[in-house]
């Protein structure tokens, strides 16, 4: 019996019955954490993350094209132990040209990276503004932020965009073709843009007001002295 035990212990793996199958199972790592039994298709953590990323990328590729405007870029510095560390700050306005716009700012060591950060922040902060006939605002508005105060007014066709640099970028990306604006108090582009978006956030359309008050659009438009026929024609032309 002792001789037979020694012979089996010294024999190669292919001679011992069942040893070959055990070697294959151990080589595949059945119980180990690094095993390949759990693939991406079985709901592993890496597999789920990959599917989510692919789904998000597909939504971004299928989205509509946006208008990006670089409003201001500034060099900034941070004092550290060894001296000063310089970087750049970018202010970007993004819009779809159909009534949606937003702004964002970002900081980075390089200009392209700062612009990309600001663009991503602007896309997340986009708001919708109702437009009259798709070219101008429905009514006048005022906004202020800090020392900046702005006034926006509706304009007839052919007026164009009468606005300063930062405000012009907002209305061009928003899709407004006729508007008159005035900014007082500051020339800081950050404060001007925030004040402008505050004024745009107060914009309402006759359709939303009529739904809130439970009235017809023609009744709201006919109170300014206009005839019923003109009010009904304007109410029929309003889509927002």
Note down, in words, how this protein is organized:
The chain is an alpha+beta fold and 240 residues long. The chain has helices at residues 2-10, 19-28, 45-61, 111-124, 165-174, 189-201, 206-213, 217-221, 228-237; strands at residues 67-80, 83-95, 100-108, 127-128, 141-145, 148-154, 161-162, 179-184. The strands form two sheets. A four-stranded antiparallel sheet has the order 1-2-3-4. β5 (141-145) and β6 form a beta hairpin. The longest helix is centred in the N-terminal third of the chain and has 17 residues, at 45-61. The N and C termini lie far apart (96 Å).
Secondary structure layout plus pairing:
Blueprint lengths: L1 H9 L8 H10 L16 H17 L5 E14 L2 E13 L4 E9 L2 H14 L2 E2 L12 E5 L2 E7 L6 E2 L2 H10 L4 E6 L4 H13 L4 H8 L3 H5 L6 H10 L3
Parallel strand pairs: 7-8
Antiparallel strand pairs: 1-2, 2-3, 3-4, 5-6, 6-8
Helix pairs in contact: 5-6
């Amino acid at each position: 019996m002792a001789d037979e035990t020694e012979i089996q212990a010294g024999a190669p793996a292919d001679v011992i019955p069942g040893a070959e199958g055990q070697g294959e199972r151990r080589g595949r790592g059945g119980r180990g954490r690094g095993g390949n039994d759990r693939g991406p298709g079985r709901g592993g953590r890496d597999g789920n993350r990959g599917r989510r990323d692919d789904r998000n990328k597909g939504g971004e590729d299928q989205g509509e094209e946006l208008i990006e405007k670089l409003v201001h870029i500034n060099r900034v510095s941070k004092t550290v132990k060894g001296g000063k560390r310089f970087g750049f700050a970018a202010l970007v306005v993004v819009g779809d040209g159909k009534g949606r716009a937003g702004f964002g700012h970002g900081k980075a060591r390089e200009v392209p990276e700062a612009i990309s950060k600001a663009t991503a922040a602007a896309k997340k902060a986009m708001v919708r503004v109702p437009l009259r006939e798709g070219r101008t605002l429905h009514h006048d508005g005022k906004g202020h932020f800090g020392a900046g105060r702005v006034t926006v007014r509706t304009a007839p066709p052919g007026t164009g965009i009468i606005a300063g640099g930062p405000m012009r970028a907002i209305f061009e990306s928003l899709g407004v073709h006729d508007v008159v604006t005035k900014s007082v108090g500051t020339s800081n582009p950050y404060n001007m843009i925030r004040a402008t978006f505050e004024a745009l956030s107060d914009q309402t359309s006759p359709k939303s007001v009529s739904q809130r008050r439970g009235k017809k659009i023609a009744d709201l438009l006919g109170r300014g002295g206009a005839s019923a026929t003109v009010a009904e024609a304007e109410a029929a032309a309003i889509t927002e």
